[in-house]
Write a structure and sequence with these properties.
With 252 residues, this protein is an alpha/beta fold. Helix content is 46%, strand content 16%. It is built from eleven helices and eight strands. The chain has an eight-stranded parallel beta barrel with strand order 1-2-3-4-5-6-7-8, surrounded by eight helices.
């Protein structure tokens, strides 16, 4: 029997900003602009979140530059900034200096991130970004599909951390094969000395098998938590997700 272990939860607050932007995108600075993603982050922390994740996209569809700066100054856990490999966003990251930067693929026509980053195919383009982040004391994480080739490319880039894309697992009608891929990729990453995180499409109903993957450190979850918060409040929604993760990890 394996020993209980704590799996950290990072709460993604992008969709709080999505709701704000639906009404106030063209009313920057309005005193009525709500909900505030920073306030949501503080609620998530009080409920037990170990970190806050926010994606500053090039098209600024939800999170804005000011949100990132406010998050960095006001949260008490850690900021995990998701970003595409963009010079403009990199400049902001190097200025703000979040604890973590998770590099993700970014397509302006997508509704949300649709797959993992191609670390092997984009190696030469990604390497300078990883080096720049490391030079600023920022931990780089690569958001990749559960593929050992991509795991090995992430390690070769010098990234100390990966985040496994769990979308295929979450959407599959027969998730066992996808879960096996996640386990294999995680095991290879651990062999290479990488920290293993995971996220995308996870809910209280499907998070258990992922949280039980040996060696997993952190789960980053947003949409399911924010959706549940509509009915029970954000504090309770975060606690429900944490409870589901703890059960899977054997933590009482």
């Amino acid at each position: 029997m394996t020993s209980p272990r704590e799996i950290l939860l990072g709460v993604n607050i992008d969709h709080v900003a999505t709701l704000r932007e639906a009404r106030y995108r063209n009313l920057r600075g309005s005193r009525n602009a709500m909900p505030d993603p920073v306030e949501a982050a503080l609620v998530a922390e009080r409920a037990g979140a170990a970190g806050i994740t926010a994606h500053l996209r090039e098209d600024r569809r939800h999170i804005q530059d000011a949100d990132i700066r406010a998050l960095k100054s006001r949260i008490s856990t850690k900021l995990n900034l998701e970003m595409g490999n963009s010079p403009g966003i990199l400049a902001i990251a190097l200025d703000v200096r979040p604890a973590d930067v998770c590099l993700v693929p970014e397509n302006r026509l997508e509704v949300t991130t649709e797959g993992g980053l191609d670390c092997e195919g984009q190696f030469d383009a990604l390497a300078p970004t990883v080096r720049a982040l490391a030079g600023a004391g920022i931990r780089a994480s690569m958001f990749i599909d559960p593929d050992t080739v991509q795991v090995e490319a992430a390690a070769a880039l010098g990234a100390p951390c990966i985040e496994l894309h769990t979308g295929a697992y979450a959407e599959s009608p027969s998730p066992d094969a996808e879960l096996a891929r996640l386990r294999t990729a995680a095991a290879r990453a651990l062999e290479l000395g990488l920290q293993v995180n995971a996220g995308h499409g996870l809910t209280t109903s499907n998070v258990g098998p992922v949280a039980a993957i040996p060696g997993l450190t952190e789960l980053n979850i947003g949409h399911a938590i924010i959706s549940r918060a509509v009915f029970c409040g954000l504090h309770e929604a975060v606690k429900e997700m944490l409870d589901a993760i703890k059960r899977a990890a054997g933590v009482r």
